[in-house]
Design brief:
Blueprint lengths: L7 H12 L4 H13 L7 E10 L6 E6 L8 E3 L10 H20 L14 E6 L51 H9 L1 H19 L4 H7 E11 L5 E13 L2 E3 L7 H14 L2 E3 L8 E3 L4 E5 L12 H11 L29 H13 L27 E3 L7 H17 L10 E11 L3 H11 L8
Antiparallel strand pairs: 1-2, 1-3, 1-12, 4-6, 4-10, 5-6, 5-11, 6-7, 8-9
Length: 459
């Protein structure tokens, strides 16, 4: 081990020599593969072959095998949504999420009627309650207020900047409710599900309708993402929309279904949600609930100038779709028993490390059998949360799968122009095997150098 970084030439040199060992074609082909990855930093390596046949005569029209590729492998994009793993693939995921959210707000595209732009729509943020005081950073306005100016109990009179490592850390770790924190994260998905049930009930009650009658006339559509606060607890940002329900699909809701009614129902439903879970140490039942709730109407983009427009909301939601628990100081991979004693050395904050160890302890099936279904050891790196980071209701808008299919069909249409046969009238036989993932250190340095502006190694 050395304190000095390895020169980039010492990493790239062996890679070029290895790839060019048989011929210069191997190096050029590897560069072509990297170029097709469009910046993916953790590609999947595949081994296999594919044959295109004429179904009538059995003639082989085209055959491809990775045997002719450098190292006998084909590199394909990883498609990871997390920016901490692959910024390039995460950017594609973010862009897809943006269009998905925007389509559900504006309509007129991707199978969503244009009338939805006039439906009641709000941006709702549901957070967790307090489990103990933590150091606070700047507010939404960017102003750094005094952290915790208290005369009694834990206090902090400093003004923390956004880059202060203490933001989100417990003021008094010994008094912080780490058990309650982990249990809340583990049940956050159930709390959201129960919130949806309560919201429909409160909306129906406000309109003087039974639950069944409300469901027949109104559809509640939403798209949400989960974000980790600096203290390591998830909260949800959700676009919620009211639609009319008919056999023809999405229609305009009744006149009484207003933005004000939706906002009030979200606030009252969130405050009414309660979830009782057993105390892992034999005490009384723990009562899990939501904390602060913020609801803001979404105004249509127009000449009046909306402070919260459709594009702004879509960008806001999509920004968090590529983030995960690592933004709160934890790891971006699953934790093993051998990691527990070295969490701080691996860059985990003291607060997140204690949450991970708490989740690991609560996940012991011998001492806490009632918590076994939560699989807390498997999800210790996410501090107990095991739900979806982004999800939507069926009728909100299009799907990510549909967006990817359009992109695939576009590429296939371009390839069709260069083929001497019609792919729709052929039979394709393929055999692929997973051979690994990622670059070596030298390959990563070489790929980064040619991906930068002006990079042209071997081209």
């Amino acid at each position: 081990m050395t304190d000095h970084p390895t020169p980039i030439g010492d990493l790239i040199g062996p890679v070029i020599r290895d790839l060019a060992h048989r011929s210069g074609r191997d190096l050029n082909r590897w560069l072509q593969q990297v170029d097709r990855l469009r910046g993916c930093s953790d590609p999947v390596r595949l081994v296999g072959e594919v044959s295109t046949l004429d179904p009538g005569t059995g003639e082989v029209l085209h055959h491809y095998s990775t045997g002719g590729e450098p190292h006998g492998q084909l590199l394909v994009r990883c498609g990871n949504r997390r920016a901490s793993r692959c910024p390039a693939c995460a950017e594609t995921y973010r862009a897809d999420t943006f269009h998905l959210i925007r389509a559900g707000l504006l309509g007129g595209d991707k199978g969503v009627p244009a009338t939805v732009s006039a439906h009641p729509r709000v941006l709702a943020t549901l957070t967790a309650p307090s489990f103990g005081p933590v150091h606070r950073g700047p507010g939404k306005n960017g102003q750094a207020d005094v952290c915790h100016p208290r005369r009694n109990g834990p206090a902090c009179f400093e003004r923390h900047g956004s880059d202060d490592q203490r933001v989100g850390q417990a003021l008094d770790p010994d008094a912080y409710d780490y058990v309650g924190h982990v249990l809340w994260n583990a049940h956050a998905g159930k709390l959201w599900h129960r919130f949806g049930i309560y919201l429909r009930r409160h909306l129906g009650s406000s309109a003087g309708l039974t639950r069944a009658e409300f469901s027949r006339r109104i559809r509640l559509s939403f798209a949400k993402v989960a974000e980790y606060q600096a203290r390591g607890v998830v909260h949800f940002h959700a676009v919620v929309r009211l639609d009319g329900r008919t056999e023809d699909g999405i229609t305009e809701p009744p006149a009484w279904a207003t933005v004000e009614l939706l906002a009030e129902a979200i606030d009252s439903a969130a405050k009414a949600v309660r979830l009782d879970v057993p105390d892992p140490y034999g005490g009384a039942m723990r009562d899990l609930c939501w904390g602060a709730v913020d609801v803001r109407p979404i105004a249509s983009t127009g000449p009046n100038g909306a402070s919260l427009s459709e594009a702004a909301v879509a960008g806001y939601i999509a920004k968090y779709a590529t983030k995960s628990a690592e933004t709160s100081g934890t790891l971006d991979r699953r934790v093993k028993r051998s990691d527990l004693a070295q969490l701080e050395q691996r860059g985990v904050t003291a607060h997140a490390a204690r949450l991970i160890r708490t989740a690991w302890e609560l996940g012991n099936p011998e001492t806490h059998p009632d918590l076994a279904p939560l699989r807390l050891r498997q999800w210790a790196h996410t501090l107990g949360f095991r739900g979806h980071f982004s999800s939507k209701s069926r009728a909100y808008s299009t799907t990510l799968t549909a967006l990817r299919r359009v992109r695939l069909e576009y590429r296939q249409a371009r390839d069709l122009e260069r083929l001497p046969y019609d792919p729709a009238a052929t039979l394709t036989l393929a055999n692929w095997r997973y051979a690994g993932q990622g670059y070596t250190a030298g390959e990563s340095a070489l790929a980064s150098s040619i991906s930068q502006p002006g990079g042209s190694v071997g081209r």
